[in-house]
Amino acid sequence: MTSKIIGVGNYIPPETITNLFFDQHHFINKSGESLKETNAVIAQKLKEITGIEERRYASSHQVTSDLGLIAAQQAIEDSKIDPETLDYIIFAHNFGDVRFGTVQSDTVPSLAARVKHLLKIKNNFCVAYDVLFGCPGWIEGVIQANAFIKSGIARRCLVIGAETLSRVVDIHDRDSMIYADGAGAVILEACNNDCGIQAHLSASYTLNEKDYLYFGKSYNNESCPDTKYIKMDGRKIYEFALVNVPEAMKLCLEKSGFSIDDINKIIIHQANEKMDEAIVKRFYQLHNKPMPENIMPMVIEKLGNSSVATIPSLLKMILNGELPLHQIRRDEVVLFASVGAGMNINAFIYKF
């Protein structure tokens, strides 16, 4: 027994933020010195490296759990199930509900509990909890849900990934241009081994890599000395991901029993277009194969990096026919993979 996806949903916030939004920002470095390049040059380099031209921000009245609720409602509607039959609601995020104009994270009660409440689920034995696992959090939630289903203690699970990274960025850090808001969700249900999740893998690299992504002070120590924001060492993350993610994908594929030629799509965390392409190329190089055309759908150009939301949101777009060059048909095999804060890596092989 394994689990299959029977419903998908997402929420792409309405507020489109182009790179022009950052034209008047005062970007400085770690030493507090103004960057020498103009903001136009910084934005152009961002596009060349990450592919990002636009990103979406949540409306000022919304918080992360609101976004997750909408994605969850879509997934439930798509699955045509009674939400009272859910055994688990697993909500992957990293910063909780951060209200617009504030800096305080609110995670009590859990975001999963908030969504369950708003769905008006009366079943007390539908367990709601959160997962904090960096950007790979949604995949980890899927892996946990699959374990519950395989063990027989659950039949159906709702797994949500949502984040409002726009609320935790340092406006003086050019890396703030990468981040976005969004949500995605799936309903998983028990099925036989001919479909659904065929293999999975997770890893946490913490000995030397723990602080590649972290919460740190603003580069502008005068205006906001005590507030912390999401920070990253982009070069170290790139080098780490390029070495370790392809290896993890290869191990996961080997566990599944499928071959490299069986893979129809690779849905990877939308972190950085250049990095993601390098990861997938390296994955195929490990198999002495060239990277096939149209194997890796990308929407980061218009949606930015919304952390845990990127993969489930993209999956819904593909299954909904919103990406003309990418379809997933019955019996096709898809490799899902992610990397992020921790540093964590995970992947799973799925047969549709």
From TrEMBL:
Span of domain Beta-ketoacyl-[acyl-carrier-protein] synthase III C-terminal: 253-351
CDD domains from the UniProt entry: KAS_III
Name listed for the protein in its UniProt record: 3-oxoacyl-ACP synthase
Keyword NAD among UniProt keywords: no
GO process terms (BP): fatty acid biosynthetic process; secondary metabolite biosynthetic process
The keyword Acyltransferase belongs to this UniProt entry's keyword annotation: yes
Keyword terms: Acyltransferase, Transferase
InterPro entries per record: ACP_syn_III_C, ACP_syn_III_N, Thiolase-like
Pfam entry (one): ACP_syn_III
Top-rank taxon: Bacteria
Domain Beta-ketoacyl-[acyl-carrier-protein] synthase III N-terminal positions: 129-194
Cross-referenced SUPFAM superfamilies: Thiolase-like (SSF53901)
MF (Gene Ontology): 3-oxoacyl-[acyl-carrier-protein] synthase activity
